[in-house]
Specification:
This protein is of the alpha/beta class and 346 residues long. The protein contains 12 helices and 13 strands. Helix 1 packs across helix 12, helix 7 packs parallel to helix 12 and helix 8 packs parallel to helix 10.
Length: 346
């Protein structure tokens, strides 16, 4: 059995990690870390775990945790993992960080967008960006995996074949994204109160959202040159889900069949990516509670543009599900183990 520890087990992504790992036949969770609920039973924080998890919450002592487990998940705010990690820890346990601490290779870019000093820049080049469908080979041999963000997972996967195959003009990408409120985390914030969110939709982080450089960096690798995107997120009154609608100029006229062939080239064998039938467009309700990404596209010959759409569960494939998928790769397990979950509806 793989022994796992979770720092930040009482956040939304952390709780989803617990739920998924409890159903994983090769994993035992031995450390439920939560600085806010030390010594409280885990089920007292999440009532759905009553008579399922009897463990008490422990602290965020990563040094002690590394002596106890094979893999550490850090589902914590930006900066914490970077402040705790060191060579000794990585020599003892694999680390999958769900924050943004190791997603960007350029420390100056990280510090500019996140507004904090990076405390472990020496590990940035080693960290593998954990987008399994693109970086599978490198993830298998990694000690430290940077689990991608939810918006970024959906955006990068939706545009990757188009950029990689030169179907679009890469500097023309515009991404309009919507997220459920769980994406903001479990901590109390006035902007996320029921009366603030219900019956409302709003843009936020306009031209300043922290996932922007992450999307740009990964798509730049695909393009073979630096590119910029316009990314605008919106908060919508639902619990879970990411929906992105992206736009780009075509490099030259192309048929729908050729575009579909490009997607099938990269994703035809991918279990968790579902390219929908023509004229069927992604909806968040059809991926909720799962590790699937649904996507499709529509060509606009009138304007020589393409519209790209993608949907995923922000806590699932956008966080915890992807982290488990990364863990499976790192330990040589079937990639789908513990993740073959039918989406929940209604």
């Amino acid at each position: 059995m793989i022994k796992a520890g979770i720092i930040g087990a009482t956040g939304y992504a952390g709780q989803e990690l617990v739920r998924l790992l409890l159903g994983h036949r090769d994993v035992e969770i031995v450390w439920y870390g939560s600085k806010s609920y030390i010594d409280r039973k885990y089920y007292q924080v999440y009532g759905n775990m009553f008579q399922i998890v009897e463990n008490v919450c422990l602290d965020d002592n990563m040094e002690a945790l590394a002596d106890t487990v094979d893999v550490i998940f850090t589902a914590t705010p930006q900066g914490l993992c970077a402040s705790l990690i060191n060579e000794g820890i990585l020599n003892k346990a694999k680390v999958i960080d769900l924050s943004a601490d190791f997603r960007l290779k350029d420390v100056a870019v990280y510090e500019a967008w996140y507004g904090i000093r990076h405390q472990s820049p020496r590990f940035l080049q080693e960290a593998v960006y954990g987008l399994c469908e693109i970086n599978r080979k490198d993830i298998k041999h990694a000690r430290l995996v940077a689990n991608p963000g939810c918006y970024t997972t959906c955006s990068i996967l939706a545009f990757y074949p188009l950029v990689k195959e030169g179907i679009i003009q890469p500097d023309s990408i515009i991404i309009d994204a919507k997220s459920g409120t769980s994406g903001a985390g479990r901590s109390a914030k006035i902007a996320n109160l029921y009366c603030e969110v219900n019956e409302n939709i709003k843009a936020y982080g306009v031209l300043s959202h922290r996932h922007t450089p992450e999307i740009e960096e990964q798509l730049s690798y695909a393009a073979g040159k630096k590119l910029n995107v316009i990314f605008t997120p919106h908060l919508v009154p639902m619990n879970r889900g990411i929906l992105i609608t992206g736009y780009a100029n075509l490099a030259e006229p192309v048929s729908a069949e050729a575009v579909r062939s490009a997607y099938e080239k990269y994703y035809g064998a991918e279990y968790f990516i579902r390219l929908l039938d023509p004229e069927v467009y992604p909806e968040t309700r059809w991926v909720e509670g799962s590790n699937y990404v649904d996507m499709n596209f529509k060509l606009d010959n009138r304007t020589n543009r393409i519209v790209v759409m993608g949907a995923l569960d922000n806590i699932g494939k956008g966080a915890a599900g992807q982290a488990v998928q990364n863990m499976n790769l790192m330990f040589g397990l079937p990639e789908t183990e513990g993740l073959e979950l039918v989406p929940v509806f209604p």
